[in-house]
Design brief:
Layout (H helix, E strand, L loop, with lengths): L1 E2 L2 H9 L3 H19 L4 H24 L7 H13 L2 H15 L5 E10 L8 E5 L7 H4 L6 H9 L1 E10 L7 H22 L7 E3 L5 E2 L18 E5 L5 E2 L3 E3 L4 H11 L3 H4 L6 H19 L5 E6 L2 E8 L4 H17 L4 E10 L18 E10 L5 E10 L2 E4 L3 E4 L7 H7 L10
Helix pairs in contact: 1-2, 2-3, 2-8, 3-5, 3-8, 12-13
């Protein structure tokens, strides 16, 4: 969620385009009202239709204030053509007209049911109206009796997600469609500010403290990646429902100072941002080595990066292998929401060379597996980099072998993140 600060309120009072800014903020508020009422049909209907109607009035208010923008017609004409040529924005105009002149949109609640048994998006999907959905048994019966089928039954999850779809816009989830339309109109509004020599309005992300102007394609972080919050997950191995567990870690100065003393660290060397993301990877892995040789173990941590700036640190709890498939998808949502262009995962792992005759065998089950401390950097631009060191145990004492490096390794675990970046996965090793 976003919030206004004293700074943003001062902007609102001083900005000549404040009336337009307020109307756009009204859309943002109605959108969140619809999100909160997602499982309440009447509440959702009212809020989402109000958001659509209000969004349409933003350009009306903009045009009524055209005297504030130099050479308005010349500036606005290209934007007007861009919006008219956009199928989603044409639908928004038609939807607003229908709401005001004919009645409610014909929105229906659907259930999307999917078996997830891979980091890749290759599982069977069934989508049916909510009132016709009888449970995960429909999907379970479709699982083949094969090596793939056994893998699915042992590690698969049935993910059931509700979604609202309007009859005349079948390819979009309705809340997401309005968020995308909000983003397109926000781009126009923000360009209007730049045209009169002012900064666009600022929104603060309460989770990260970051400030956002136009956001990404105009959308605010709180309007991205909301779908998984409306899902339930059922393990195929035992039929039980479970929740994902991942914790965002916040900086604690006292704990940081205690850690520096405990492990003999140099604070500036723990997060070395003097170079690029590989420099940061090296510094984090060197720190992890010291911690493992002191404590005998290392938690799994995921660092989301924008350049060398750390925008979030996550401690995922992988209750079983099946949960990994879902949690990595969840982390991919965060990558999109926070516009992260790099991800580093550090933790203990099993490592083994892939056996082509056993494509579904996990590294943990391979006879030649090795226990390692591992750190992997994947990034939007550039090859993945993996650092690892073998564990050597002597009772409770742990020492690590020499750090080894692999460039362009195959990391299926990061497939959802590569999907978020629309990139393909390099090939080599199995996880």
């Amino acid at each position: 969620m976003s919030r206004k600060t004293e700074r943003t309120e001062l902007h609102d009072r001083a900005c000549p385009l404040a009336a337009i800014d307020r109307r756009l903020e009204d859309v943002h508020r109605h959108w969140h009202s619809a999100e909160r009422a997602y499982f309440e049909p009447d509440g959702f209907r009212i809020a989402i239709q109000t958001a659509i109607q209000t969004l349409r009035t933003v350009t009306f208010v903009l045009q009524s204030n055209k005297h504030l923008i130099p050479e308005f017609d010349r500036w606005y004409a290209p934007w007007q053509e861009k919006l008219k040529s956009d199928g989603l924005m044409r639908w928004m105009v038609d939807a607003r007209n229908k709401i005001e002149k004919q009645g409610d949109l014909e929105a229906n609640s659907f259930v999307r049911a999917e078996i997830i048994a891979s980091y890749l998006n290759n599982g069977p999907v069934i989508e049916v109206p909510a009132k016709l959905f009888d449970g995960p048994q429909v999907l379970i019966k479709s699982i083949p009796e094969s090596a793939l089928g056994q893998h699915i039954k042992e590690f698969g999850t049935v993910k059931i997600q509700r979604r609202w779809v309007e009859n005349s816009l079948p390819d979009y989830e309705l809340l997401d469609a309005v968020a995308m339309a909000y983003g397109k109109i926000a781009e126009v509004v923000h360009d209007a500010h730049r045209n009169i020599g002012r900064h666009p309005p600022i929104t603060i992300d309460v989770e990260t403290g970051e400030e956002f102007g136009a956001g990404r394609a105009g959308r605010l972080p709180c309007m991205i990646g909301h779908g998984d919050a409306r899902s339930i997950n059922i393990s195929l191995s035992d039929g039980k429902e479970f929740d994902l567990s991942r914790e965002a870690i916040h900086f604690d100065r006292q704990k940081a100072e205690e850690s520096v003393a405990r492990y003999g660290l140099q604070p500036e060397a723990v997060f070395d941002t003097s170079g690029d993301q590989e420099t940061l990877l090296d510094s984090l892995f060197d720190t992890a080595r010291k911690m493992v040789e002191k404590d005998g173990y290392h938690l799994t941590l995921v660092f989301l990066l924008r350049g060398v700036k750390m925008v979030q640190v996550i401690h995922p709890e992988f209750s079983d292998h099946g949960a990994k498939y879902l949690i990595m998808r969840d982390i991919a949502h965060e990558v999109t929401r926070l516009a992260a262009d790099g991800v580093i995962l550090i933790g203990e792992a099993w490592r083994a060379v892939a056996d082509p005759s056993k494509p579904y065998m996990r590294a943990a089950d391979a006879p030649d597996r090795k226990e390692v401390l591992r750190a992997i950097l994947v990034r939007r631009e550039g090859d993945p980099v993996e650092l690892f060191a073998d564990f050597h145990r002597n009772g409770d004492q742990v020492t690590l072998g020499a750090t080894q490096t692999i460039i362009r390794g195959q990391h299926f675990m990061f497939a959802p993140i590569y999907d978020a970046w629309a990139r393909e996965i390099p090939n080599d090793w199995q996880d």
